[in-house]
Structures are given as structure tokens and as C-alpha cells.
């Protein structure tokens, strides 16, 4: 009686081929996931920034009460015509966008009599599950102005000095000047994923 079956050598050969294919495919899939996180974060922040500017534009020309964003009253805008709070119904950007933004987190508020700002992270800049960076001599090789897991976003809702703005500085990041209504990425040039100490100066 003749049996048709794989020999041990053939099975080992097939397993080796599957292993080689997996070692090539897995990094590519990881890159696709990272690109999706980055694109989703940038698209969401762009939509939020557009909604903020739209509310400010309406405020600057409207003399009466009006609604902006996600059914928000004009009374929720500050003295410079920008929303102080972007959240609504436990949704981080619920005041300006419909739908859930559960992958975004509010990290901290930076409030003084001279300025009000809020720090956010998203799916790409999340310090735990965000996009990893390649380290080289203690610095990251990320693309400038693209989020990774040690970067963060700052929304400046109110800056008293509307001409000069204020400067954001932190450990291992370039100083950046922001003005009322700005929603900017702070690109941290190191591999530490803890939120750095942020200093704001006139």
C-alpha cells in the first residue's frame, strides 16, 4: 500500500519559508499601522483647528448670539473669540467635532492670567501606544512636524499679548511661539516618553 504524505524535510522547509515571509511582512504591517495612526491624528487636529478658526471668524463678524462647532453657544467663546474648552459629554473634542475621539487625551492645562493653553496627545503621540521612534545617540529620527510617542499638541485658547504671543519651551524641544487660537505640535527630540516640563514665557 502506497501512502502520499510530506516528509519531515519537506515540512521543515515549508516552516522555514513561512518564517521568512512572516519576518518580511510583519514590519510592513507595523509601518501601515503607524501611518494610519499618524494620518488619523493629523486629520483630526486639522479638523479641530479649522472648527476653531471658523468659530473665531463667525465671532469677529457676528454682533448677536450664534452657534458654532457641535451646537455650542457663542457665550462659550472667550474675550478673543476662541473656545476655552473643547470637550463635551466626556468627548475630548466634542465641542467642535461630532463623533467620538476616544484615542485623544487631554494631558494638562497651562493657565495663568496671561495665557490659557491645553496639552493633548493622540493615537500617534500617545506615550504608551503611540508611534515608536528610532533612537540614535539619545535623539529621535522622526520626521519634523509629524507626531510620535513623545510629542504633544498645545492648543492656546487665550494669549493676553496678541502681538508677541508666548513661547513654549521644554526639555529637548525647540522653542515655539504661539498665538491665540493656535493648535501646534511640539516635537520633542529625545526618547523619553514622559510628558516634559513645559515652560511658557511672554
- Structural class designation: alpha+beta
Q: From the alpha-carbon coordinates, what is the Rg to the nearest angstrom?
A: 23 Å
As for the number of domains, it is: 1
Q: What's the total helix number?
A: 1
Which regions contain 5 or more consecutive residues with pLDDT less than 50? none
Biggest pleated sheet: 4 strands, antiparallel
Helix content: 25-40%
Oligomer: single chain
Order of helices and strands: HEEEEEEEEEEE
* Strand adjacency order, main sheet: 3-4-7-10
In short:
With 202 residues, this protein is of the alpha+beta class. The protein has one helix at 8-61; strands at 67-68, 72-73, 105-111, 115-121, 135-136, 139-140, 152-159, 166-170, 173-178, 183-186, 198-201.
Give a written overview of the molecule.
27% of the residues lie in helices and 24% in strands. With 202 residues, it is α+β, with helices and mostly antiparallel strands. The model has no long low-confidence stretch (mean pLDDT 82). It contains one helix and eleven strands, in the order H-E-E-E-E-E-E-E-E-E-E-E. It has one domain (8-201). It has a four-stranded antiparallel sheet, with no helix packed on it. The protein has a three-stranded antiparallel sheet with strand order 9-8-11, with no helix packed on it.
